[in-house]
Design brief:
Layout lengths: L7 E4 L22 H9 L4 E8 L5 E3 L16 H4 L4 H7 L5 E6 L14 H12 L5 E5 L2 H10 L5 E5 L5 H10 L4 E5 L15 H10 L3 E5 L6 H6 L4 E4 L2 H7 L1
Parallel strand pairs: 1-2, 1-9, 2-4, 4-5, 5-6, 6-7, 7-8, 8-9
Antiparallel strand pairs: 2-3
Helix pairs in contact: 4-5
Length: 249
């Protein structure tokens, strides 16, 4: 079991996607930064989600987009020049009772670089160390990365993420076939918010996932609709409005 209770609320990129101001704070906190992580913990969360990608000098940093705010590709910059938080520094600063959903953003260069330089190979020793002191979930849109980590990280749960034209009802059998532990879907790709009424009811998809041994995660539900996703049976929600969703549930 990945999550101790359902639905577990996970802070999206820390306190939320975008520069948000936590209650009681005077200034916003930027996503995928340590202040954002600590703000989520202060709000009462035991789980946070972070985005991880690699740099030109084979370091791992926190960033969702492939480019920096200046438009430079992260994979073309050394970590120090990127201005982004290093993954190991963030892990070291977080209390060990904070669980982390590591959303891995692989890069195009992983297709041609030497195996030792690919994102999964760089991430593997970091996650092995971290798994000894905190709970982890590793998620990605990249099934090749997840298959690599599955073989190198026994006991660490892995989840396949889905989006739009590869939605939940396709990802459930794919994740089960890969021997993964979870499947994640964006609200825009599943039943409650999806306009196509010919699709299976969301509750049915979640039930099939559970029967296949997969825990289910939805990301970006609004506070208003969070109870609907809870009623559909999701095990966890990755949210932007941390206070709002906690209040709604």
């Amino acid at each position: 079991m990945i999550f101790e209770h359902a639905p577990t609320v996970i802070g999206h990129r820390g306190f939320g996607s975008g520069d948000l101001t936590p209650p009681g704070a005077e200034v916003p906190v930027a996503e995928n930064t340590l202040p954002s992580m600590l703000a989520a913990v202060e709000a009462g969360l035991s789980w946070i989600e972070i985005d991880v990608t690699r740099t030109a000098d084979d370091d791992l940093v926190l960033r969702h987009d492939p480019t920096t705010s200046d438009g430079d590709y992260v994979v073309d910059l050394p970590a120090t020049a990127s201005g982004l938080p290093r993954l190991t520094d963030v892990f070291d600063a977080l209390p060990p009772d904070v669980a982390v959903d590591v959303d891995v953003k692989t890069v195009l260069e992983d297709a041609v670089d030497a195996p030792s330089r690919r994102t999964g190979a760089l991430l593997l020793p970091v996650l092995k160390r971290e798994a000894e002191r905190r709970r982890l979930l590793v998620t990605s849109f990249d099934p090749a990365l997840l298959a690599f980590l599955r073989d190198g990280l026994p006991g660490v749960p892995l989840g396949l993420l889905t989006w739009l034209r590869f939605p939940l009802w396709h990802a459930v059998p794919a994740a089960a076939g890969l021997g993964l532990d979870a499947v994640g879907v964006h609200t825009g790709s599943c039943g409650i918010d999806h306009p196509d009424t010919r699709l299976r009811p969301l509750e049915h998809c979640v039930d099939v996932a559970h029967k296949a041994g997969l825990e289910t995660v939805v990301w970006c539900p609004s506070a208003e609709k969070a109870p609907d996703y809870a009623a559909a049976g999701f095990d966890a929600m990755v949210v932007n409005d941390v206070p709002g969703v906690l209040a709604a549930l």
